[in-house]
């Protein structure tokens, strides 16, 4: 298949197969549903920390994030600034509560604290969001890998999906943990190699410091911005506040993560695994973005393509060859001028001519960007409806064109490992929630005896297979619904605030009962959906708004009930005075008492 | 209520950390590291631009 050499294929297939075989072998012998869902409680904190990181790191992390660094600089790292604080709160509050009640899923806790309705509501929100999210986690890298590497899309989706379903069903959460540990090691190794390669590929005389200053001169080193703007997606404040709520919800209440740390050998191991993530997640994201920024600097000195989406550029060339040739000629000229300006800026650093060289570099960079923009406009005109965003293609283009043979296979393996680890966590959590929070609970409600170990295990495996089928079905049909893909990316953030609100009330407001919190959750969910449809607020803030709405409504409902009860009591007294003990008065008072009882149950 | 889960692992919920004897110290360390990272990012932004 053209793009990869035999050595790359050997590295790619060897890495993936080795990890899967190791994971299945280490996790053989799941005996019951508890072993399948939360393992046998033998995991130490380094494994837990790595599996937590691997679960969050999808293939998009390694495809899109360097592209984001390339096109938008470092500011995306602020998205993760709330994460360490969320890890502290989860370690201090959530983990002890889960351990105390010995729950297998986060939503099981909601029934202990409130009632079965709240558990089912929380579990259902999770299943919708995570089910769609896992489908996209499988679809998105497959389409990019198929476009760039020339692999057929459907077989790529099926190959990744079936492999993940296979080892997930065979070994349950233990197989997922063991494979994720190895996958994360491959990912970190690949990242390190990519960073070294891109730095070594810089021209002679361009140091890392010089490259960073070049990136800074072109506004790519804007790591922290203290501006407070609700419409600016990545600032210090949106990261610290909005990001805190998002990460608190994701790590504290999303079963795909809760399942990871509940498999620890003790509460201390679970906590340390979470805090490990809190310490290393930001540096990891910084490194991934930094690689993207260094790729940006690399292409200041090496001729970049006029558009990084090579298959689309070829389609364009086939349609309007003369226009593309003319565009490329102008692009080459602008890129050559930018290269000269970049060298001039490096020479002028620390001298009186630095400001002038910086201004000249910006002008040259603007010219290249203008030609680039023309290419995008040409694509829009000639190929209507085609995606013009190319950021997802930048890193893979660099890897294929400029990374040594063998390492290409390893870096493709990094992306596939990330896809597999995220999908595996999604599938096991979907299967666990379906069986523990719905199937077992419904059996219990129907008065059936608890299932035996074998029955429970088979039900869990069957649920995982069923979710695997649904996720695959969604992934193979996702290409039919381009807008749906965009929508699904937002769907997760629509639900997280409400789910977090349920848990915040559960942990911090011990006097609030089930019905007020359920009303609060329904109101909050409606509010967040309305804001998404009819406001410009960026999605990170939905987590804050959804959570606060649940808390406020859950607190207000009992006060409202109290007020209504006072009014009813007053009405009762008035009726007694006016009508005495007539039949009509008794009937009215009977109705009022019935209403009073219903409201009191709230 | 659902049946007893046997979900979470062994050990009490007030188990001390394997080092630094108190969890609050580890939490303060993680929070301090975050502050240091933000400060480093701010300095890097200023130096590079």
**Which secondary-structure class do the elements of chain A indicate?**
mainly alpha
Outline type of chain A: globular
Total beta-strand segments of chain B: 0
- Label the overall shape of chain B: rod-shaped
H and E order of chain A: HHHHHHHHHHHHHHHHHHHHHH
Q: Sketch the topology of chain B as an H/E string, one letter per element.
A: H
Give structural notes:
The complex is a heterodimer of chains A (602) and B (49). Chain A is mainly α and 602 residues long. Chain A has 22 helices and no strands. In chain A, helix 4 (59-72) crosses helix 17 and helix 19 (482-508) packs antiparallel against helix 20. The longest helix of chain A is centred in the N-terminal third of the chain and has 48 residues, at 153-200. The mean pLDDT of chain A is 87. With 49 residues, chain B is an all-alpha fold. Chain B has one helix and no strands. Chain B has one helix spanning 23-48. Chain B starts with 22 loop residues before the first helix and ends with a helix. Chains A and B meet through helix 2, helix 5, helix 6, helix 9 and helix 12 of A and helix 1 of B.
In short:
The complex is a heterodimer of chains A (602) and B (49). By secondary structure, chain A is mainly α. Helices cover 80% and strands 0% of the residues of chain A.
Please supply descriptive tags for the structure shown above.
heterodimer, A: 602 residues, mainly alpha, 22 helices, 80% helix, B: 49 residues, 1 helix, 53% helix, 0% strand
């Amino acid at each position: 298949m053209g793009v990869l050499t035999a050595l790359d294929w050997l590295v790619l297939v060897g890495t993936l197969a080795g990890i899967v075989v190791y994971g299945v072998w280490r996790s053989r012998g799941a005996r019951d549903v508890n072993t399948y869902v939360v393992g046998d409680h033998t995991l130490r904190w380094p494994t837990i920390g790595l599996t937590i990181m691997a679960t969050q790191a999808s293939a998009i992390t390694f495809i899109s994030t360097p592209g984001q660094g390339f096109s938008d600089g470092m500011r995306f790292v602020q998205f993760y600034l709330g994460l360490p604080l969320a890890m502290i709160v989860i370690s201090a509050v959530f983990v002890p509560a889960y351990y105390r009640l010995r729950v297998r899923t986060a939503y099981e806790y909601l029934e202990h604290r409130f009632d079965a309705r709240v558990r089912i509501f929380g579990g259902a929100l999770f299943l919708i969001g995570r089910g769609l999210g896992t489908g996209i986690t499988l679809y998105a890298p497959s389409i990019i890998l198929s476009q760039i590497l020339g692999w057929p899309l459907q077989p790529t989706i099926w190959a990744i999906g079936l492999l993940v379903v296979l080892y997930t069903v065979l070994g349950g959460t233990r197989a997922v943990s063991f494979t994720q540990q190895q996958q994360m090691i491959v990912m970190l190794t690949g990242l390190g190699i990519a960073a070294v390669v891109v730095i070594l590929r810089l021209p002679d005389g361009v140091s890392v410091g010089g490259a960073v200053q070049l990136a800074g001169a072109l506004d790519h080193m804007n790591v922290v911005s203290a501006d407070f703007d609700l419409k600016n997606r990545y600032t210090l404040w949106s990261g610290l506040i909005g990001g805190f709520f998002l990460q608190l919800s994701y790590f504290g209440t999303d079963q795909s993560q809760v399942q990871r740390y509940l498999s620890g050998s003790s509460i201390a191991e679970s906590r340390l695994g979470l805090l490990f993530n809190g310490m290393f997640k930001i540096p990891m994201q910084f490194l991934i973005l930094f690689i993207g920024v260094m790729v940006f600097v690399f292409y200041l000195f090496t001729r970049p393509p006029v558009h990084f989406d090579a298959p689309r550029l070829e389609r364009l060339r086939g349609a309007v060859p003369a226009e593309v040739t003319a565009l490329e000629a102008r692009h080459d000229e602008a890129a050559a001028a930018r290269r000269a300006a970049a060298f001039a800026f490096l020479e002028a650093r620390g001298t009186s001519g630095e400001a002038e060289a910086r201004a000249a570099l910006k002008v040259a960079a603007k010219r290249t960007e203008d030609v680039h923009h023309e290419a995008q406009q040409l694509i829009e005109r000639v190929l209507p409806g085609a995606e013009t965003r190319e950021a997802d293609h930048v890193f893979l283009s660099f890897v294929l064109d400029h990374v040594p043979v063998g390492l290409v296979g390893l870096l493709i393996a990094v992306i596939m490992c990330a896809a597999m680890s995220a999908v595996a966590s999604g599938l096991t959590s979907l299967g666990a929630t379906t069986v523990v929070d719905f199937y077992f609970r419904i059996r219990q409600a129907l008065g059936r005896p608890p299932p035996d170990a074998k029955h429970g295990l088979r039900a869990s495996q069957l649920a995982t297979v069923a979710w695997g089928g649904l996720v695959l079905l969604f992934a193979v049909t996702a290409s039919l619904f381009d807008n749906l893909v965009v929508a699904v990316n937002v769907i997760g953030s629509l639900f997280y605030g409400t789910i977090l609100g349920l848990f915040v009330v559960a942990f911090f407001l011990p006097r609030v009962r089930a019905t007020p919190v359920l009303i609060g959750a329904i109101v909050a969910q409606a509010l967040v959906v309305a804001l998404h449809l009819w406001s410009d607020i960026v999605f990170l803030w939905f987590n804050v708004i959804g959570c606060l709405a649940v808390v406020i409504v859950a607190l207000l409902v009992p006060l409202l009930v109290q007020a209504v009860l006072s009014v009813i009591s007053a009405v009762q007294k008035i009726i007694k005075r006016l009508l005495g003990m007539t039949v009509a008065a008794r009937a009215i008072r009977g109705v009022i008492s019935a209403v009073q009882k219903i409201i009191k149950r709230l | 209520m659902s049946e007893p889960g046997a979900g979470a692992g062994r050990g009490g919920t007030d188990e001390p950390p394997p080092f630094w004897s108190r969890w609050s110290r580890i939490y303060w360390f993680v929070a301090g590291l975050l502050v240091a990272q933000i400060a480093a990012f701010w300095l890097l932004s200023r130096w590079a631009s």
